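Regression test attached.
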Amino acid sequence: AQTVTQSQPEMSVQEAETVTLSCTYDTSESNYYLFWYKQPPSRQMILVIRQEAYKQQNATENRFSVNFQKAAKSFSLKISDSQLGDTAMYFCAFMRYSGGGADGLTFGKGTHLIIQP
Amino acid sequence: GAGVSQSPSNKVTEKGKDVELRCDPISGHTALYWYRQSLGQGLEFLIYFQGNSAPDKSGLPSDRFSAERTGGSVSTLTIQRTQQEDSAVYLCASSLIGIAYEQYFGPGTRLTVT
């Protein structure tokens, strides 16, 4: 079984600052993806970024980037130039896959990120 | 295009009653997932449908929970004899197989058992 750990229940930064959210995971699987999802107060889960485990290059999506350390089983999310709209719960998630499909996501407990004006 | 839709958005029911929650996935998505989100347990996987294969029911918490997917599209999650601990937000997600397996979530159904 996989586990995902987010050690920061809540973080608060000023607008325009850079913030890093931590995530570690534990698995014996070889084929997997890692994701960061954002859940604003509206409750809608939104995919922020994904990382294929077999890729060494860190994924980036505009202001969002990850630091993927496979050997350390670490997957942190960096948000640059933070904006008020980034205020939300952020969930790190693990997904195992095979040729036949993919399992359900295993989520961490989440980090509540607050961007202060 | 249309995203994943769920109905109802909110449901209040009395303990012991049965409830049905509905999920309409994105058209063409062959995989469908149900999750439960509660304060105490966080986000938990419940069940997974892929095409015509037998569903992965490994996350269902008890035999009071069941789900079906008709015609490879709409899915219904049924909770029988509801208990107060079933109060949670139930999220549905769908995905294509092989396209990074990205899951797209619906807005959820908030279930309150009184």
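Expected vs. actual: identical. The longest strand of chain B covers residues 42-50.
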